[in-house]
Amino acid sequence: MNIRTIDWKNNSVRIIDQTRLPQKLVYININKLEGLCRAIKILQVRGAPALGAAAALGVYLGVRNYPGSDWPGFSRKLSAVAKHIAESRPTARNLFWGIERACLAALRNNQLPVAKIKQIILAEGKKIMQEDASSCRRIGFYGAKLLKHNSRVLTICNAGILATVDYGTALGVIYSACTQGKKIKVFSCETRPLLQGSRLSTWELYKKGVDVTMIADNTAASLMAEGKVDLVITGADRIAANGDSANKIGTSNLAILCQYHKIPFYIAAPVSTFDFNIKSGKDIKIEMRNSREITSILFKKEISPSGANVLNPAFDVTASHLISGIITDKGIIRPPYIKNINRISKGNKCV
Ligand code: MRU
Could you state, in order of their start, the residue ranges of all structural domains in the chain? Predict the structure, then answer.
């Protein structure tokens, strides 16, 4: 199965509507900034790297009909569009990185006619998509070395094709190992409340012919106790300079379980997910989402008394001391994280 989560087609952003999976594989074309921001908010497009590409292409959607030809006016429009996209979701670093890349490309060329600058912004969005495709494959290449023939990997949420342009980070590691001929068994946590694990990861792994078993989130501990998990690999939404990593709510539970059961716990993410400006996970803004996501099953059937207090953080932060390594497109970063992440921030490869 070869699919693309996000693309630029017919003057529109074409995405797979992930709210329709696994029942239907539906592509939608978005040609307005508002539509794109809504798609991000309701998770039609989601996953940190895919959000980076969506954000950059969104900048183009937002400015392309700007009627003026003056840089000062265009630059004010650009800032307003950037601010609007930045308000769609707070946690994934890639979303802000995508906006910054598009705006910087414009700024660097501000001596050119506005019509040309618009095309440069679009080209930057396309470049981000190309880069994501190759950086995920590099993550796969480095990460596959951690997997042996018959390794049993547990993962949460979706850090696969559907969270990136076309390959995946955590699942990219699995795809890469499978391509090398290794037989890999995957346990996919369902990922309450929005079920990215069962609806998306299990779907794409199954379609790719990988041996995948879906589990309820609370099954992970007993599987580990039975010795059925060799390692855990998850994605990340934002990684601080000390290695603390935000990812889907429930990820830190798994890392703590791994420490108890002496199972390696890995994060897989491109360098664009690092936030070198924040010292630790304490500075990561965690998105709080609508309570209906947990008071109902996918907004259809109510499962709690109406009016009860509800807390619905979308992400948690895994402390870096629980992380065995961070698989990036520049190699695997090992502790000591502050020193080794600092090296990466300067454009170096991992040692
Ligand atoms: O709320 P989501 O579905 O956008 O959350 C996504 C995740 O938590 C992923 O694991 C993360 O973005 C990494 S994707 C390669």
Answer: 6-136, 142-345
Instruction: In whole angstroms, give the CA distance from residue 130 to residue 139.
Output: 15
What residues pair up with 8 in beta bridges, in sequence order?
13
pLDDT of 247 reads 98
Distance 243 CA to ligand 1 centre (A): 17
Contact 345, 276 (CB under 8 A): yes
Report yes or no: 306 and 282 within 8 Å, Cβ to Cβ: no
Catalytic (active site) residue 237: yes
Q: Which of 139, 164, 57, 52 is nearest to 97 (CA)?
A: 52
Q: Are domains 6-136 and 142-345 of this chain identical in fold? A: no
Rounded to an integer, what distance in angstroms lies between the CA atom of residue 198 and that of residue 158?
A: 9
> Which residue has tokens 């969506």?
54
Partners of 332 in the beta sheet?
A: 327
Mutate to test the pocket of ligand 1, among 46, 167, 289, 294 (most ligand atoms within 8 A of CB): 46
CATH homologous superfamily, domain 142-345: Translation initiation factor eif-2b; domain 2 (3.40.50.10470)
CA distance 138 to 135: 5
Q: Which of 189, 246, 180 is nearest to 220 (CA)?
A: 189
**Mind listing the pLDDT tens digit for each residue in 143-179?**
999 999 999 999 999 999 999 999 999 999 999 999 9
The confidence score (pLDDT) of residue 266 equals 99
Q: Does domain 6-136 have CATH number 1.20.120.420?
A: yes
pTM of the model: 0.97
Name which of 9, 30, 28 is nearest 19 in CA terms.
28
Q: Whose CA is nearest to atom 10 of ligand 1?
A: 235
pLDDT at residue 348, as a whole number: 82
Q: What is the pLDDT of residues 184-212, one digit of tens each?
A: 999 999 999 999 999 999 999 999 999 99
Distance CA 28, CA 9 (A): 10
